[in-house]
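User: Could you write out the 3D structure of this protein bound to zinc ion? I've included everything you need below.
Assistant: Certainly. Input first, then the structure.
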Amino acid sequence: MIEKKHIIDRFTSYVTIDTESDPNSNTTPSTEKQWNLANKLVEELKQIGLEDVTIDENAYIMATLPSNVSYPVPVIGFISHFDTSPDFTGANVKPQIIENYDGKDIVLNEEQNIILSPDYFEDLLMYKGQTLITTDGTTLLGADDKAGITEIVSAMEYLINNPEIKHGKIRVGFTPDEEIGRGAHKFDVEKFGAEWAYTMDGSQVGELEYENFNAAGAVVTIKGKIVHPGYAKGKMINSMYIATDYINSLPRLETPEHTEGREGFFHLHTIDGSVDETKLQYIIRDHNKEHFEARKEMMKELANDINEQFQMEAVSVKIKDQYFNMREKIEPVMHIVSIAKEAMEQLGFKPLIKPIRGGTDGSQLSFMGLPCPNIFAGGHNFHGRYEYVPVESIIKATEVIVKIAELTAKDLTNYKSGEE
Ligand SMILES: [Zn+2]
């Protein structure tokens, strides 16, 4: 049995340490304060009995739970991140514990009238009768991804305390700076030495993800010609009008607010303009690789069309790939998804398999040679004051880790049938 109070205490001890990351910093970790939790985690991993506990100069933590069987079993890993999002403050987190949730409004902050309500956040109703951990309305919670860390540490502790559960060698990895897109950047895949791993960084119970967007960023620069408005006839070219034409020429319904599932989009997120020059910043997203390439091509062709029309190099487009859909790296080793699925089913709940409309550290790791699907960590409403996590979900995720460890030490032939 995984004890609820133990989980709450562990989770609370993590979220009350501020680990907000900073996209404007060039160091790793991006903020000095991430060391506070990192150093504490190192001590805790040693204390529960893991071996080879290491932390490198960039605060990447790794540890080993040795195999307790005499036959060969693939080495697997579990990964989460200890930084929290710079979107909202993570300083002075004061977690509130709501036991036996009654399905009604939760007053997060009486003074500031901040309410967490199932009228708006319907997902809350799934957790009636459970124990919720919320914020006090003034900070984020940091369940993303300190719930993941709680789950991995607790699962390793459970396996150590219950040696009758047979498992192979398991590697644990905790990273800084995931929230600013750099969690995988300095992750030493070779040193980690696992055949595959799972990030514990999804949301609701059952989530299991191995598809994410292909992603690129585009900067469209439009040059105009500035002339005194009183003498401008036939001479002035206003870059902002050309920019408007450019924006309107892209498919108007292929934007984040009009798409879902596996539908891709162009997302204009910043306009910076004057007569002389306008810069448009886009992100391009698509699960399908060909469609992704076609989107990039479309943005360039559109620029060419306008340049031809104006007989000058008015528009230039710079596109930079950001990350790719991990699906192509997972499909050849689908047993790693099947094992996670089977683990959830054996624990009595349904895996929710859906494409991620974003990226994960796991997608980068998959392309670095460590196939890495993503599993739920249990939290909701990430990156803001309404973030909450049911303790029961943290326990379920912990049990999933234990079960995956157990299943991986069994005969994998069934999971592998159908693979090349
Ligand atoms: Zn996360």
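Residues 81, 144-145, 178, 201 surround zinc ion (CB under 6 Å).
User: Perfect, thank you.
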